[in-house]
Amino acid sequence: MGCALSGSGVAPGKTISESKWCPSAENQLASKVGAEHGGDGTGADPFPLAEGQKKRIQESWRFLHDNIARVGIIVFIRLFETHPECKDVFFLFRDIDDLQQLKMNKELQAHGLRVMSFIEKSVARLDQEDKLEHLAFELGRSHYRYNAPPKYYEYVGIQFISAVQPILKERWTPAVEEAWQSLFKYLTATMKRGYYEEEEKSGSIKSLGLRKPGTGSILNSI
Ligand code: HEM
Question: Any residues with CB less than 8 A from the CB of 24 and at least 6 apart, and which?
Fold first, then answer.
């Protein structure tokens, strides 16, 4: 039996964690090494990418780079098709219902590019695990302020993977797919930790009466 996510594509509506997750021996080794270096099952997970997986991601990114604007839009249009409620958190285009029209929207294009440049930064930091973790953790914290709930983060990875597959053509292999899945799994798990930390902080600030009720972030009340 193979991975639910490998092969022809990803079932829409399934998250990576909901799908059958099947780490390769290489991946398991990477986790084991991480655990031996202090991973205790609490807090941050050990960095899950093996050296070969990092290389596969870096190589495929070189081919994807020229297409990032297109990929950014496809990812979000598909996210809104499968989870229309996600659009409601985007003030700048939440009132545009026609997804064809939305594809041409400058704000969505700019947002897609911001997300892709985050992926680019992550790829550039695959060998600097502390920096990568910090980047994703802070992004999760800012998503708490954007009111963007963690349950949707994994769908971005799923849509990214299905959007880049036809671009990479024969360069797309099950091993490349697994490497990207591992990266997104790590990024979304780290973002979630950042989100929940910010939520907890804001909760304690709220209980001290320092935040206006109904505001998403302390920043809004400063
Ligand atoms: C792997 C998942 C995701 C990644 C990597 C990601 C990345 C980003 C990045 C790089 C930004 C730019 C601003 C910043 O750096 O703080 C951003 C902004 C934002 N994201 Fe996400 N995001 C993800 C998932 C989501 C989801 C699922 C939603 C909605 C449900 C969402 C909603 C927003 C909103 C509302 C903003 C602020 C508006 C804007 O910048 O245009 N994000 N995101």
Answer: 175, 178
Nearest to 112 by CA among 157, 76, 63: 76
Residues 163-196 as b or e (16 or more Cβ within 10 Å = b)? bbbebbeeebeeebbbbbbbbbbbbbbbbbbbbe
Q: Does 118 sit in the ligand 1 pocket, CB within 6 Å? A: yes
Kindly give the distance from the C-alpha atom of residue 5 to the centroid of ligand 1, in angstroms, as a whole number: 24
Taking only the tens place, the pLDDT of each residue in 139-171 is: 999 999 999 999 999 999 999 999 999 999 999
Q: How far is the CA of 143 from the centre of ligand 1 (A)?
A: 6
| 50 to 80, 90, 109, 130, 145: CA distances (angstroms) | 33, 36, 33, 16, 33
**How far is the C-alpha of 130 from the C-alpha of 150, rounded, in Å?**
22
pLDDT digits (tens, 9 = 90+) for 87-136: 999 988 888 989 989 999 999 999 999 999 999 999 999 999 999 999 99
Judge contact between 46 and 34, C-beta under 8 A.
yes
- Give the mutation target among 107, 111, 187 for probing the ligand 1 site: most ligand atoms within 8 A of CB: 111
Does residue 148 come out as left (phi exceeding 0), alpha (psi in the -120 to 50 range) or beta? beta
For 48-193, CATH number out of 3.30.450.40, 1.10.490.10, 3.40.50.20, 3.90.1170.50 equals 1.10.490.10
